[in-house]
């Protein structure tokens, strides 16, 4: 494997599978924050200390237990250019923080990209597992398995009273962030989304945009995750998220049925108008592309569009991001050039379908 292997294709292999509730749930993710005792947190570590963390992480890849899970590759951020880093962010394989500010930063990726372990990010290790559809419990099982292997080889920073110690106090305890990415166009169109999200916030969950904290919910994509990491067990956190997401799915399904019963012609017009524009436009900015692709995905899930796979939507949501567009073009592009290239890419992909 090589870096080019991970940035060549917009869609990770794990995304090609259709998990449970995949018409609404795009992906499920578990992230565990871990640090090694006797080393300062990355922001305070010296260059030598962060290099030692990197070396220990690389050594773990030779452990037979890890090799039984799959094939892994360690990629150093220092050996990547700006566009390559940005593509990995757009594919949700690394965080913007790791891409922009990291000393001896690296990422360990599994062959199908469902496992991503960031090294020397905000914490020494951030173990991430991604699954298609609504499989948050399955993602937790895999992350927990990897964490147990690492903990058997590393001396984690752990307190009997506080749990796992992390750079950010909001992660202390379990160090667990469980999140589910949802496509909720019907709740947005029926103007129920604010009421639903307000209720979600009241039960200890956070709602963010597609790239996590501080990002915008483009294309009707919302990331729902736990806020509490201290005082609850991992099982309690995941069960709470699972229960709430099930209710959100039910509300979205009810909203879609309401649209079909009361406004079918209007929704069909919206879907096919966006499909027509995407199929013929020669300029398309990222915000409009996200919204119109959301309309098309809704049309696919409602059975209005039958000749385009939902996987095309997943692929285009990454392919049309600025970093991937420029990496694919082999050069940096101005905003106007990106808009033209984005439109061309969408036209080509939809016509191919």
Automatic annotation (TrEMBL):
Looking at the keywords, is GTP-binding present? no
- Indicate which residues form the motif RDXXRA motif of the pArg binding pocket involved in allosteric regulation: 338-343
Q: Which reaction does it catalyse?
A: L-arginyl-[protein] + ATP = N(omega)-phospho-L-arginyl-[protein] + ADP + H(+)
A GO MF annotation of the entry reads:
protein arginine kinase activity
What are the record keywords, sorted?
Allosteric enzyme, ATP-binding, Kinase, Nucleotide-binding, Transferase
Residue ranges that the Swiss-Prot or TrEMBL entry lists as coiled coil: none
A Pfam family (short name) is: ATP-gua_Ptrans
> Binding of ATP: at which residues?
27-31, 92, 126, 177-181, 208-213
Activity control: Appears to be allosterically activated by the binding of pArg-containing polypeptides to the pArg-binding pocket localized in the C-terminal domain of McsB.
Q: Which family does it belong to?
A: Belongs to the ATP:guanido phosphotransferase family.
Cited function: Catalyzes the specific phosphorylation of arginine residues in proteins.
Q: What is this protein called?
A: Protein-arginine kinase
Q: Which gene encodes it?
A: mcsB
């Amino acid at each position: 494997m090589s870096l080019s292997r991970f940035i060549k294709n917009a869609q990770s292999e794990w995304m090609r599978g259709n998990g449970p509730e995949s018409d609404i749930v795009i992906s499920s993710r578990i992230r565990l924050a871990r640090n090694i005792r006797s080393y300062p947190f990355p922001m305070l570590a010296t260059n030598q200390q962060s290099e030692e963390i990197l070396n220990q992480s690389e050594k773990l890849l030779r452990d037979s237990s890890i090799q039984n899970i799959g094939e892994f590759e360690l990629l150093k951020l220092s050996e990547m250019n700006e566009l390559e880093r940005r593509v990995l962010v757009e594919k949700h394989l690394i965080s913007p923080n790791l891409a922009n500010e990291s000393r001896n930063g690296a990422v360990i990726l599994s062959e199908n990209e469902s496992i991503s372990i960031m090294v020397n990010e905000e914490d020494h290790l951030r173990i991430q597992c991604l699954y298609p559809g609504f499989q948050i419990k399955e993602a937790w099982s895999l992350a927990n398995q990897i964490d147990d292997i690492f903990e058997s080889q590393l001396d984690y920073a752990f307190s009997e009273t506080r749990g796992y110690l992390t750079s950010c106090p909001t992660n202390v305890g379990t160090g667990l962030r469980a999140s589910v990415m949802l496509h909720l166009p019907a709740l947005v169109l029926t103007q129920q989304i604010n009421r639903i999200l307000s209720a979600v916030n009241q039960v200890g969950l956070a709602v963010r945009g597609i790239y996590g904290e501080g990002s915008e919910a483009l294309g009707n994509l919302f990331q729902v995750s736990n806020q509490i990491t201290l005082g609850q067990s991992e099982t309690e956190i995941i069960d709470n998220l699972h229960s709430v997401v099930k209710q959100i799915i039910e509300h979205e399904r009810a909203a879609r049925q309401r649209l079909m019963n009361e406004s079918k012609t209007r929704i069909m017009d919206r879907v096919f108008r966006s499909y027509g524009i995407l199929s013929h436009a020669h300029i398309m900015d990222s915000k409009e592309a996200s919204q119109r692709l959301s309309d098309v995905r809704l049309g696919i899930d409602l059975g209005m569009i039958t000749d385009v796979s939902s996987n095309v939507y997943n692929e285009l949501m990454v392919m049309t991001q600025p970093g991937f567009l420029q990496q694919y073009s082999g050069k940096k592009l101005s905003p106007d050039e990106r808009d033209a290239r984005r439109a061309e890419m969408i036209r080509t992909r939809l016509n191919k379908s």
